[in-house]
Design goal:
- The protein is α/β, with parallel strands linked by helices.
- Helix content is 38%, strand content 20%.
- The protein contains 13 helices and 14 strands.
- The strands form two sheets. It has an eight-stranded parallel beta sheet with strand order 9-8-7-10-11-14-12-13, with helices on both faces. A six-stranded mixed beta sheet has the order 1-6-5-4-3-2.
- Helix 3 runs parallel beside helix 5, helix 4 crosses helix 13 and helix 5 packs across helix 6.
- It starts with a helix and ends with a helix.
- The structure holds 1,4-dihydronicotinamide adenine dinucleotide and ligand LZCNNONV.
- 1,4-dihydronicotinamide adenine dinucleotide (NAI) binds next to helix 5 and helix 6.
- The site of ligand LZCNNONV has 7 residues, from strand 4.
- Homodimer. Binds the thyroid hormone triiodothyronine (T3); T3 binding inhibits enzymatic activity.
- It holds the Pfam family OCD_Mu_crystall.
């Protein structure tokens, strides 16, 4: 078993080495090298892990604790924990989109990665995805690229995971009704994360095209109420997730129950909105990254509100979680979330490939 695994490892790393037939597991230690060091020494190509495999390797139960830890590390602003600049974006004017570059280094954890993400303000008739991404995972010592991964599954799951953490920390105790606005990729991952990690008595969905909401209901299989208007979906809801491609407010403060928690995921450009001013001004606003929100969130910038705290500040016990007040978690997405998710995928991939 061990020899087979080692041969696969050497093969993956393209290391031309004959392994003695009497080779014993404890002899590996004499090499004193790790899989990625062996691969780097051999100039091996990165492993490629595409969408289906990422999905099969990543699970919320393992991902969410890592995200929570990473959000706390980010907010500690300790450069040995996380170096993650605000995303730099290149406009793709002809295609109504942006390329976002999201490098992250976690020195203490030995994790170095960057995500390349293209996101678009697609017209109604387009069948192309709104978000397309790739994550590169590198060895920080050698610079060797260890893995190239599909970034869509990672983006969907880590974003939903961060929103689920926001709800866990900020929704009122005894929350029963979840409303999801938008029924695309993020809606699916949020539905999964929220129903797996939290418990709700009712899930409502709304989409600007009703057939999209009906399709969503059929594909998730669980009990979901399709609503004909945003107001109908959110009235009385304890937790509201906004995951639309809208660039104008879809959620109005006057419909939101006082004390509700809103995880606002769309509208990630300085001139795009999902929430109206009345909601932004009424709520205590939390963000994944304060700098990110001030640079990229139209809901924050154009409403003129202050970000009260980062989610990591709450995790670190530096800022309170106002569960009884109306709260908004403005999610922009962070490289550190991609880094821990990609590292987890790589660990799981190695364990599976080499039966470690
Ligand atoms: N905060 C973060 O970390 C991330 C944010 N996003 C953002 O989240 C949003 C959703 O992303 P995906 O689910 O991947 O997109 P998607 O295209 O799969 O789904 C978008 C949903 O919005 C609906 N929609 C389209 N135009 C609309 C409009 N004018 N008004 C209301 N609804 C409309 C669509 O019918 C669909 O249900 C996008 O704005 C995306 O940029 C995506 C990834 C990460
Ligand atoms: O963090 C990400 O990934 C994204 N954030 C906002 C827009 C789409 C992708």
């Amino acid at each position: 078993m061990f020899k087979k695994a080692l041969l696969r490892l050497l093969n993956a790393a393209q290391i031309p080495l004959d392994v003695d037939s009497n080779f014993e597991p404890n002899q590996l230690s004499q090499f004193r090298i790790s899989v990625s060091e062996a691969a780097a020494m051999a100039g091996a190509p990165p492993v490629i892990i595409w969408e289906r495999e990422v999905e099969s390797l990543l699970h919320y139960k393992e991902l969410i604790p890592r995200l929570e830890e990473a959000l706390g590390k980010f907010s500690s602003r300790d450069s040995a924990e996380v170096i993650q600049p605000v995303r730099s974006t290149v406009p793709l004017q002809k295609h109504n989109g942006f390329l976002g570059l999201m490098p992250t280094y976690m020195e203490n954890d030995g994790v170095l990665s960057t995500k390349l993400v293209c996101f678009y303000n697609r017209g109604a008739g387009s069948t192309l995805p709104s978000v397309s991404a790739t994550v590169l995972l590198l060895d920080p010592e050698s610079g060797h690229m260890k893995a190239v991964m599909d970034g869509e599954a990672i983006t969907n799951m880590r974003t939903a995971g961060a929103s689920a953490i926001s709800a866990k920390l900020l929704m009122r105790h005894g929350a029963e009704v979840l409303a999801i606005l938008g029924t695309g990729q993020q809606a699916l991952s949020h539905y999964k994360a929220f129903t797996e990690m939290l418990s709700f008595k009712e899930v409502r969905v709304w989409n600007h095209r009703r057939e999209g909401a009906e399709k969503f209901r059929r594909s998730v299989g669980g009990p979901v109420t399709v609503c004909g208007s945003v107001e109908e979906a959110v009235r009385g809801a304890d937790v509201i997730v906004t995951v639309t491609r809208s660039i104008e407010p879809v959620l109005c403060g006057r419909w939101v129950k006082p004390g509700a928690h809103v995880a606002a995921v769309g509208a990630c450009r300085p001139d795009w909105r999902e929430l109206d001013d009345s909601l932004m001004k009424e709520a205590v606003v939390y963000a994944d990254s304060r700098e990110g929100a001030m640079a990229e969130s139209g809901d924050v910038i154009l409403s003129g509100v202050e970000v009260f705290a980062e989610l990591g500040d709450v995790i670190n016990g530096i800022k309170p979680a106002y569960r009884e007040k109306t709260t908004v978690f403005k999610s922009l997405g962070m490289g550190v979330e991609d880094a821990v998710a990609a590292n987890l995928v790589y660990e799981q991939w190695k364990a599976k490939a080499y039966k470690l």
